[in-house]
Amino acid sequence: MPPSPYSAPDNLGEALGLAAAPGARVLAGGTDLLIQTRAGRLAPTAMVDLKRIDRAMGIRPAGQGFVIGAATPCTALRDDAALVAAWPGVVEAASLIGSVQVRNRASLGGNLCNASPAADSVPALIAAGATAVVAGPGGEREVPVEAIPAGPGRTTLAPGELVIELRLPPRPPGGGDAYLRLTPRTEMDIAVVGVGAALVLDGSGRCTAARIALGAVAPTALLVEAAGAALVGTKLEEGAIAAMLAAIDAAISPIDDQRASAAYRRRIAGVLATRAVARAAARARGEQA
Amino acid sequence: MNPPEQSFRVVGTRPVRPDGADKVTGRALYGTDFALAGMLHGAVLRSPHAHARIRGIDASRALALPGVKAVVTGADFPEAASVAIAGESAANLRDIARNVMARDKALYEGHAVAAVAATSPAIARAALALIAVDYEVLPHATSIAAAIAPDAPLLHDDLFTPGLKPRPETPSNLALHVAIDTGDAAAALAGAAAVAGGHYTTQPVHQGYIEPHACVAQWNADGQAQIWASSQGAFMIRSLVAGALGLKQADIRVTPLEIGGGFGGKTTVYLEPVALQLARQAGRPVRLEMSRSEVFRATGPAPGAVIDIRLGADKDGMLVGAEMTFHYTAGAFPGAAAHPAALLALAGYKVPNRKITGWEVVCNLPSSAAYRAPGAPQVAFAVESCLDELALQLGIDPIELRLKNAVGPGDTGPMGLPHGQIGLIECLEAARAHPHYSAPLAPGETRGVAAGGWANYGGPSTAAVALAEDGSVLVTTGSPDIGGSRAAMAMMAAETLGVPYETVRVTIADTASIGFSFLTGGSRTTFATGHAVIAAANQVIATARARAAQIWGVAADTVAWRDGAAHGTAGDSAGKVLTLAEIAGKAANAGGPISAEVGVNPAGWLPGFGVHICDCALDAETGQVKVTRYTAIQDVGRAIHPAYVEGQLQGGAAQGIGWALNEAYVYGADGRMENPGFLDYRVPVASDLPMIDTVLVDKPNPDHPYGVKGVGETPIVPPLAAVANAVSRAAGRRQRHLPMSPEQVLLGGDA
User: Fold this and answer.
1) Pure H helices in B7-108
2) Interface pTM, i.e. ipTM
3) Average pLDDT for chain B
4) Are B449 and B462 part of one and the same domain?
């Protein structure tokens, strides 16, 4: 690994200046960036560490919603009782990344900007309707999380831009979310398929809103709006679930690789989506934490 | 015949291991921890092609890079003699030499083609990129089917299948043929009441040791060399480096460093001859170490296998006949343990009619290496799966079926000689009686059971025992400590001498400081090196008794030895006592220091057998298997240090479960390995496994002073089928293909 000039500025302005250099990479937890650099797959000319910037660290209430610093370690999410109560699916997704030691470093911002189609936290954030605050030379903008990944290892961020915060809306009344993934191992593994689901049930159990997002079945984490739409207005009966599965099957484009075949991924996408919706619904009904 | 009941002070207790504190505090020196002043850093250029002719190598640009001190290629190595090397899987010195550095052809992706020594690792790596290799890419074969196809690319044009008579007229990729044909298997199967069988496949799997291969080599101005390396045998390194480079063995001094796992995979050399050749050219010490990717791409996996089997029983469950044909992937060079596989396939059972045909197949994979019980797990997977099918077909309990057919002492063994005091029957009985076997299963859970064994080994070992002036004891061996053998050696010495364990210190010496010992492998060390330690301790006792007799003016044979002291019995000496410490204190001026070095090659090792019980929960919608309970039962002879014996059983079971469920080399159509790292080569992590319960069955070996049998390898033999039998029962479909990944279990065909 050739030495990369490392800097850890304590303010965003300085970080943006450093990150604007050609070939510079932003460092959050480093659990992808450092590994890929050591393996020779990346050769950053500079690494700009966000962890000394206040805004990039910690979980803050924002009305009934949450602002999560982009470099906040995943471990901190599980320690935040209010966040766990509001968005258990997001927290369970972040709690599946790597191992305990990895999660003491790994962050939502890093997981998003590494742009792996199999990133665990991204489908959960998309399902939850999270947004990313993008800072750049031209100022700041807030975009839906699903607008950030562009393809494996690629984002829509312009040169010099970085994600400084993730924002989660308030949990709607009657809302619940969940994330499930399949990996051959229990830990230290990459999702073969991941499914995030967030939905809202009214007092009668009728679904009034639903978002379904999948990982590892397309070049990016994928929001399948038709899958959510298939559930809205239903009580999640068999027919509604079948319609959701059909929408998922039409939207995804899994590939064969060393981790699984496309056929298996297609099958598991349906299994996990069904289970994730059931789990999110149980949370919406208050039956499950 | 069992030896008389023995009572022990030290054997069978669980003291803290002598190397423990250094290892848990990070002080122990492993392969990559060792450094010398002025040391250069080496790097190895590896073939990106699975099969290619090397037309030429131009290293001039690399040599011109500032900081580069040496470059070596195949041309810098002598052509090694064709000499068979004894080991856990047969090999040839010429092949080993060609494996550490390709000569005319690269035979697998990752095959070393050149190496560099430079003043920093970064310069060494940069230099690799400047070496121009002119490859003629050849068609490749990474599977058995591709390698034995009629139009298969030939790896070695001088390979005429050994074991075939008459000798074949044309070379092929069939690297060995073994056959066992007893009775009339076809007729027996035709008349059997029940026949189980099928086509079984397993993939190459890596030993998965945490510590990558690493060494430092130094070439002295006088032509003598030193090597510091982590391995399963410093003498093995000495012998192979001397053979590969044409040096005298006494001119190479190999110092063993701590070993971070081997499991058979460190019973050969990869880096040492290359590092020494670099050091020789550079005139400075050179370190070579592998990355994890290099470990996967260039060091030995256990062979993958294709097995066709039929096993028949009469209506009472007595086995009547077996037919089995198997092919094992040897990788780039011959040697895939087909011989032990053929001998051990049915070694646990009395099968009067058997026809076993085995083939080793060379193909464009890394040259396979020993891995715990080499050759045995693959065939046991097929045999023990068939036994489970027969049990289901005949409505017989699977342990009962095995008990009906199990071999015991006096039954004919695989080499045609009667078995000694083996303990398969006792293990099966212990399994049947174990609470696990009768525990109710949760809904959705199933239970599998399987047995397995390994021949074990003895082999040459040397040990020295010396007394310090204060009577503390120094034990020196040449057997690297992989599984706690320092503790076992100290305990056997303490037991023999009659002194406390804490007064004994054990050193693993370099090759210039102790006589020859065969490597740590074959489950031989506690048995054979233990024999040497006990013999040396007994010589020390004999000397101490003679010194006491001299002091007391009596005949030595009147002096008794017990509880770590000489006891006079004759004349005035009656009732007198001289402790070991007192004798040691007087020794220097009364006959000289007391020590003994003993070399042995003990016979009388015995095979080890085990029985494993596995409970699984299958997610029928995803194919995912969770092992929910696991018990490993094994005849261990007598455990010197039971905790480390239990650790061997647990470790072997964990590795076997990984082999069964998720471990596999994945090769692309381009012949390149796609998962050369622990992320996608999935050994089990702690959360994948339940607590692995163990039962140590004691059936002491009468041919070892303390009853020892080898224990390290047997535990990896039963798990493949134990897991598969549980999953088969859950899935309602016989699982014949490893690994049983979720996708394989859900969608995999049963070809």
Assistant:
1) 20-24, 60-64, 93-100
2) 0.95
3) 96
4) no
The Cα–Cα gap between B162 and B462 comes to 34
Note whether A187 contacts B682, CB cutoff 8 Å: no
For range B336-363, the mean pLDDT = 96
| Same domain membership, residue B480 and residue B519 | yes
Q: Which of A4, A103, A268 to mutate to test the interface with B (most CBs of B within 10 A)?
A: A268
Query: How many other C-beta atoms can be found within 10 angstroms of the C-beta atom of residue A134?
Result: 23
pLDDT tens by residue, A207-259: 999 999 999 999 999 999 999 999 999 999 999 999 999 999 999 999 999 89
Helix (H, G, I), strand (E, B) or coil at A222: strand
Residues B624 and B538 in one domain: no
Residue of A95, A264, A267, A272 for testing the chain B interface, max B β-carbons within 10 Å: A264
Its pTM surpasses 0.90: yes
Closest chain B residue by Cα to residue A271: B621
How many domains would you assign to chain B?
3
Res B750 pLDDT > 80: no
Selecting from A99, A184, A263 the residue whose C-beta is nearest the C-beta of B742 gives: A184
CATH of the domain at B449: 3.30.365.10
What residues in B contact A192, CB-CB < 8 Å? 742
Q: What is the CATH number of the domain that holds B105?
A: 3.90.1170.50
State residue B80's pLDDT score. Answer: 86
Residue B685 forms contact with A (CB below 8 Å): yes
Is the CB of residue B221 less than 8 Å away from at least one CB of chain A? no
CB atoms within 10 A of CB B148: 17
Report chain B residues whose CB lies below 8 A from the CB of A103: none
Residue B155 is assigned to a structural domain of this protein = no
DSSP string, B503-547: GEEEEE--TTSS-----S-TT-IIIIIHHHHHHHHHHHHHHHHHH
Question: B325 with B448, same domain?
Answer: yes
Residue in A closest to B741 by C-alpha = A184
Residues B573 and B616 occupy one common structural domain: no
Chain A residues with CB under 8 Å of B688 CB are 185-187
Is B170 part of any domain? no
Domain containing B385 equals 305-456+606-748
pLDDT confidence bin for B168, thresholds 50/70/90 = very high
Contact B715, B649 (CB under 8 A): yes
